[in-house]
Amino acid sequence: MMKNTLKVVLLTSMLPFAAVAEQELTPWYVGGGLGINNYEPHCDLKTMTHCEDDDPYAWDVFGGYLFNDYFGIELGYRDLGRIQWTDFSNKRNDVGARGMALGLVGFYPFADKWSLSAEAGGMNYLLKNIKNYGTEYYSDSGIAPYIGAGIGYNFTENLKLQAKYRRYENLDDDKYNTLEMESNYWGLELSYRFGKAKAAAPVVAAAAAPIDSDNDGVMDDQDSCPDTPATHKVDANGCTVYEFVTDNHDLGGILFDNNSSVIKSASYADIEKLANYLKKNPEHTVSIEGHASNVGKPAYNMTLSESRAKSVAEALAAKYDIEASRIQAIGYGITKPIMEGNTAEAHKQNRRIEAIVTGTEKRAVLK
Predict the structure, then answer these.
(1) Within its chain, how far is the Cα of 66 from the centroid?
(2) Fewer beta carbons within 10 angstroms: which end of the chain, N or C?
(3) What pLDDT is stored for residue 10 in this prediction?
């Protein structure tokens, strides 16, 4: 009853691992094994008068977790079988060990489906000696270290069969000091790894290396704009990426006499220069800003500065054919002097017109 209960508990504990198995091989696996076990000392006729029929058949169930394809950990329950003999006190001994085992296991693939394994760990054993046909009973527990080796073959990506050898040390009855034993186990184990391996990527014939003739990062077979300058940033089609940038340009001042909005003849050269610039850049606009010197009343100077700005704006439209929609005239009076002070030179410099050209230019974005 105890044996069957332990089997059910261990296998049931592995069910969640089966539920999460999806499209890939998981690191979890379960399995079980059968084999034969040889306790030492066995029937050497030194401590025994004669041997009796043994029950050397051993079994185990286990679950494991792989850290990678070469290394993992296993937890399982093992029954190492029983042996019988009659000692020199003419008492029949019936001895067996079983218990939970925990160990590390390593794998080394050496062929397509073949692999070697090595393991080491400890078994928390319960050693029972039912002596003299059940009239005497000796039982003790402890930790028995073990090592093992094996060879395995994968029938499928999930199913694996292994031939195993394990050596157990110190299977001792320290409580009553009646037994000191070791054990050798040989057996077969079948394990199942949960999940499904990813399908191998299809082998694609090697293609000719793609070419990027203009070194813009887009291959020729996808490049809609060949010979793009190497310094230009390009889009997915290999064409230059542009941005629109707005700049202000001050083209200089136009001066006026005191208390006058009449343009001096000498200033028309500056206005013509401004007009030519606007004709070459039809997307640009201009703001004509009028200013006055700090002589007289501020309100009058404000009106005067507006008149000066309008004079220049009208000259641009009428004399040089610049569209009126591209021209703005505004007066600032004495609010923005460029020279402080109440001197003749300061008044001369502050009686002026400034043309502020605003334009949005299309420029290539550089790397």
Answers:
(1) 22
(2) N
(3) 39
Token pair belonging to 292: 């006055």
Residue 134 near residue 160 (C-beta atoms within 8 A): no
Which of 117, 120, 97, 99 minimizes the C-alpha distance to 167? Answer: 120
Q: Which two structure tokens, joined as six digits, stand for 311?
A: 């004079």
Residue that has been written with the tokens 């021209």 in this structure:
327
Identity of the amino acid at 321:
D
**How many angstroms separate the CA atoms of 251 and 269, rounded?**
12
- Alpha-carbon separation of residue 352 from 231, 263, 331 (angstroms): 43, 10, 11
For the chain, strand residue ranges (E) read 28-40, 48-51, 57-68, 71-87, 92-109, 114-131, 136-154, 159-173, 179-193, 242-255, 285-291, 327-331, 352-364
pTM above 0.70, yes or no: no
Nearest alpha-carbon partner for 174 in 218, 140, 132: 140
Q: What is the pLDDT of residues 21-33, one digit of tens each?
A: 344 889 999 999 9
Of 294, 290, 307, give the one whose Cα is nearest residue 355.
290
Residue 358, helix vs strand vs coil: strand
Task: Give pLDDT, residue 365.
Answer: 84
* pLDDT value for 125: 95
C-alpha–C-alpha distance, residues 313 and 69, integer Å? 84
Q: Containing H/E element for 275?
A: helix 268-280
Question: SS in 3 state form for 170-235?
Answer: EEEECCCCCEEEEEEEEEEEEEEECCCCCCCCCCCCCCCCCCCCCCCCCCHHHCCCCCCCCCECEC
> Which residues neighbour 279 within 8 Å (Cβ) at sequence distance 6 or greater?
320, 322
